[in-house]
Design a protein that fits this description.
The chain is of the alpha/beta class and 345 residues long. It folds into two domains: 197 residues, NAD(P)-binding Rossmann-like Domain (Rossmann fold, 3-Layer(aba) Sandwich), CATH 3.40.50.720; 100 residues, Alpha-Beta Complex (UDP-galactose 4-epimerase, domain 1), CATH 3.90.25. Helix content is 37%, strand content 15%. It has a seven-stranded parallel beta sheet, sandwiched between helices. It has a two-stranded parallel ribbon with strand order 7-10. Strands 8-13 form a two-stranded parallel ribbon. The longest helix has 22 residues. It is globular and about 55 Å long. Bound molecules: uridine-5'-diphosphate-4-deoxy-4-fluoro-alpha-D-galactose. The site of uridine-5'-diphosphate-4-deoxy-4-fluoro-alpha-D-galactose (UFG) has 21 residues, from helix 6 and strand 8. Uridine-5'-diphosphate-4-deoxy-4-fluoro-alpha-D-galactose binds next to helix 6 and strand 8.
Length: 345
Amino acid sequence: MHTPPAWPPIDPDRANPAGPVLVVGGAGYIGSHTVRLLEQRKVPVVVLDNLSTGHREAVRVPFEHCELSDRAAIAKVLAKHQPCAVVHFAAKCYVGESVTDPAKYYRENVIHTFHLLEEMRAAGIQDLVFSSSCATYGEPTKLPLTEEHTQLPISPYGKTKLHMEHMLADYARAYGLRFAALRYFNAAGASQAGDLGEDHDPETHLIPLVLQVALGQRKEIAIFGDDYPTPDGTCIRDYVHVEDLARAHLAALVRLQEGRAPILCNLGTGTGFSVKQVIQTARKVTGHPIPVRIEPRRPGDPPELYSGGTLAYDLLGWKPRRAGIEEIVRDAWNFLSKHREGYAH
Ligand code: UFG
């Protein structure tokens, strides 16, 4: 049984880490929301991104276009901006693609993270917040998924995230790295202001795809399997608002700067929604009928994934504030209605 640490309380809504903070992958979906929150809290922040999937339009703070394959370039950015902490979002994150092209995942996730860690070590930067994933657990043997669940990832994507967690733990022991590994469940939603949101190419995530049907950009939404052992036969996931995820990163930075590490915890809401429930919510929010087509199961999809326990609260004072699926879908719809073709338009 987990015993909460005797750390003083922390409020993610007031967490104000010292800067400058370097956000690697800060032009991406979760990264850009975290950068915006740092900006709002007046924390000096710099983004490093190669824009392979991120969007320059999502960033209005100092920006460095940089490849993580290029260690000299990373070193230059660190020397120029002298960050006191790094938040590392940059990674490939498609489970299906990781099965067909694992080399890309080992290179871009594991090797590039090694480059970043080595350059941080050379520059004497100790604090790192890292995007991990519930995919590190693999097929749940027990629900809800707590941090005590064994980590036996089934996809190369999940394996690379676990390798990275292990690297961080080894660097912590040997070189004094202080790290937080935050295991996200399904990131979803968009900024309340409607200026930041999810824009992937190709899009594979359920909520934006469903909303693209409502916009008339797709004819129907494919449901990958309606014969799962769940109440309505479709997969259940824990959708967590991207702005809630961002709040957790600021709290984690403060904890690291207090010298409290390592931090390994889930970021989920504790409540799961089925694919059909998400589609039904989108019908309500958009007023569109959203036709569906039943397709075979997608390989590697566990029937149910949702988070449990209170570790994120115990360590970071973090609870999701925007845990309703309707609010998540509404914010995503607001962004997409304003950016029908993504950021570029
Ligand atoms: N789904 C459909 N139709 C679609 C797209 C998705 O039915 O067109 C279903 C999926 O089968 C799944 C659910 O909707 O049951 C959610 O799928 P997403 O692709 O939106 O998200 P995943 O659960 O596959 O992926 C998320 C994160 C990954 C992470 C993974 C862990 O995006 O980064 O959870 O399982 F690795």
